[in-house]
Amino acid sequence: MPDPGQPPVGGAADRVVAAAVELVHQRGLKVGLDGISLEEAIAASGVSRATAYRRWPNRSDFLRHVLLRVVHDARLEPESDADIAAVRDRIATSRDSLVTEQGRRTLVVESLRITTESDFRRLAGSRRWRDHLALRATCSSLPAGDLRDAVAAALHASERAFTEHRARVYSRLPGVLGYRLVPWLDASSGYTLMAATTGALMVGLVGRAAIVPTGPAVQMRAFGSTERSPWTTQSYAITSAVLSFLEPDPDVVWDSARVDQTIALSYDLEAEARALRHDH
């Protein structure tokens, strides 16, 4: 018999779980999980009732498989390929800006604003990601026992993978842009803390957007940038958080060779971020 703690893959059981998850994505996840029906999933999947009930003699096992699949499907992708390319394009086309301190600051700030806003819009518009957030809220209301423990463990593993992925990308970014961690942080934990902080902010902002519509952007020159740009709550909050972890590295000499290196490193960063994302 398959491990009851893991979602089934392939065959009739997989079709029933897939049908149930699709119904969850269509309707949204409800506290109490009353909207997850084995009978409806059986009907939608085309699997016989006898086969389904042999696999899941009780609803708790069925719910476990459905909820673990909801967690897995969300995947908490830290950034899209377009987000990654946007950072690279901004750096690669900013040779003149890179030679001055002010130009570099504007480049850093504007890159963070653009990618943060793109990241937020993508996640806020994802039905699967919203279901993942709803499951986080629902998990604490589940009765104590195997089901809640399994869902909590899956959520924890998913978010740990998200944090570790983004920490690896963050650890490369300062070197590309001539920044470093602020002195009271060290590389062994600083980037992980940075990733966990921005991840928690993003989760809260996406959850808030489902209830409170995002307000209009405010035009301003923020965080030392010379560009007057539209800043939203989410882009301002997350950019502020990232910049609280970093400062310009005074040991970097910005000559033409360093500018060439930065542009080359931006392509390396893009390739690494894409590889990490698709391995995630």
From TrEMBL:
The keyword Metal-binding does not apply. The keyword DNA-binding applies. Residues 10-74 form the HTH tetR-type domain. Keywords: DNA-binding. Residues 37-56 bind DNA. This is HTH tetR-type domain-containing protein. The lineage of its organism: Bacteria, Bacillati, Actinomycetota, Actinomycetes, Micrococcales.
